[in-house]
Amino acid sequence: MANAESSSAPHPLANPGYGKRTAPYEHPARRDDWAHLHPREAAIAAYIERLPDGSDISVKTLAKQLPYGQCALRTALNRIQRAGHLRRGRECLGGRWITRTWWSRTARDDAWWAAFERGDAPREKPPPTRSRAYILLAALGRENSALSLSHADCRALAPLLEEWFAREATDGDVLRALTDGLPTPVHHPAGLVRNRLTTKLPPPPMRREPPPLRLLECAKCGVPGYVDALVGGECGVCRGGPAPPQTRRAAILPAARVRAYADAIREAGERNRT
Fold first, then answer.
1. Structural domain of residue 111, as residue ranges?
2. What is the pLDDT of residues 77-133, one digit of tens each?
3. What 3 state SS string does 188-199 have?
4. Choosing a second label site near 124 at 20 to 30 A (CA), which of 27, 30, 69, 173?
């Protein structure tokens, strides 16, 4: 059986638009990224992680590249999925639904994947010991000595500044807002900075693109459903629970989502006609 570590042939790519798709906002790579997995799953996960996007990571193809059979690989992928590294589903591109396999080196919980399906995946990178906001505030005194702040001031004001960064303000935007047109003298630097961070807060950024149209599917039966009902990528029925009422099974998506998908498909059709 082929062994990926000794084979010189590159891993096959899937058809264009299919295959591995890396999820956004991953944590920096660490040596213990797969320590929570069993050795076999860890080896398979490490192999998939090294593959470029677009690689064919179907069970059949992986079995040709790795020293494991299809049954063992299917079991391992299900465990990797339950650990939060893998989800399967579909995404609407140009009015056409494409099968997707999303991969995340960072283990994600079901709530994160639900937000990802809505196109609203949170940036959950762990903050450094001193945040970007703290560092900028601590450096204000070097920009203008009248705005020198204490350690306690920086810690208290940092959450206000984090909101600026969440609204895509740059360091230059912040410095201009805090240092332009200062009164003489500045009696209370922390109070002045607090006031300006509050009153000059920029508006939220406009969404540049419509949210993606995605459906996560049960890994076992392949049926799309309410994403909140998918635990570890599997629906309640496949986890051994009771079948949902017929009326609920028929309504796979909320009406608002259905209308959004229909509008996107109509817009795509109009663009194709033009």
1. 20-120+211-268
2. 999 999 999 999 888 887 888 888 999 999 999 999 988 988 888 776 655 568 889
3. CHHHHHHHHHHH
4. 173
